Amino acid sequence: MGTIMWLLALFTIIFISLHHLHTRRNRGQIPVSVNYHFTRRCNYTCGFCFHTASTSYIEDPNRAKEGLRLLANAGMRKLNFAGGEPFLYPKFLGEMIDFCKQDLKLESVSIVTNGSLIREDFLRKHGKNLDILAVSCDSFDEATNIQIGRGTGTQVKKLCEIARWCEKYGVLFKINTVVNRLNYMEDMNERIGELKPFRWKCFQVLIVAGENDTEETLRNGHKFTISDGEFEGFCERHRGQPSLVPEPNSLMAKSYLILDEYLRFLDRTGKQPSRPILEVGVKKALESVFWDEGAFLERGGLYDWVKPEMEKSCGKGGREELDW
């Protein structure tokens, strides 16, 4: 009797799983978390950059809002603004942040930045509509940052200043570190412990075809690459940091849903970008590129991405709320 009940339970689980899979295939992928790289321009020269300044285009604000509304209607819950360097265009960035929260009512809005151009006035004005501010810092040794191409020796000082502003204006503070040939032996435990970011994302330096893979591209990241073992060694050294989120190449390469400056989804398998979502819609654009949802989930793409005071009104960005 016990065996029969166990088999029935197993059959039920399999049936439900297949039903969910069939439902999701019929309705297509849901762009739950999107990275909008609205500019490729940057004021830094990081040698391993994989989203380089091959154009200087930036979308008209009204067209950009139209595209973001399409994404929200298609199921987007989190939007991350990236570049290039987003703070080269603070007016555009601030307008988009406010639109996403006030008009689209997105659960989470975030920015990834090198931090150099952030001013306190921006957070004073827009911080209420910003959930997460992620600042890139690859070393706490300024000589290493300079060698990488990340600034002129003030990166760490600025990072600490931004951390204080985030606390002051109620924005979750995050640090992004690219683990590479110049920093993989560094011990960052003391400084990360002092700064206490809510997330510390550590990426293994990534080579992307057409962006940083040859002498003909704007960057050639090969001299910065490290082995999987060297990346794992860095992560193991910092395993005691509660905010640590390691991201090896195997999880990073195709797990990000990237919208470029022309409102096209990028495909990291070597295929051409999609047509702009304003021309063909979100569903058709998504169908034309490869986005690895499994790797997205495995790397922790779903997490509590809403700042605490917002959770009561819009709910946590937890994975249990999604029908994956």
From TrEMBL:
The keyword Mitochondrion applies. Its cofactor is [4Fe-4S] cluster. Residues 1-23 form the signal peptide. The keyword Endoplasmic reticulum does not apply. Gene3D superfamilies: Aldolase class I. Keywords: 4Fe-4S, Antiviral defense, Iron, Iron-sulfur, Metal-binding, Mitochondrion, S-adenosyl-L-methionine, Signal. Residues 26-239 form the Radical SAM core domain. Pfam families: Radical_SAM (PF04055). NCBIfam families: viperin_w_prok. PANTHER family: RADICAL S-ADENOSYL METHIONINE DOMAIN-CONTAINING PROTEIN 2 (PTHR21339), S-ADENOSYLMETHIONINE-DEPENDENT NUCLEOTIDE DEHYDRATASE RSAD2 (PTHR21339:SF0). This is Radical SAM core domain-containing protein. It comes from Podospora pseudoanserina.
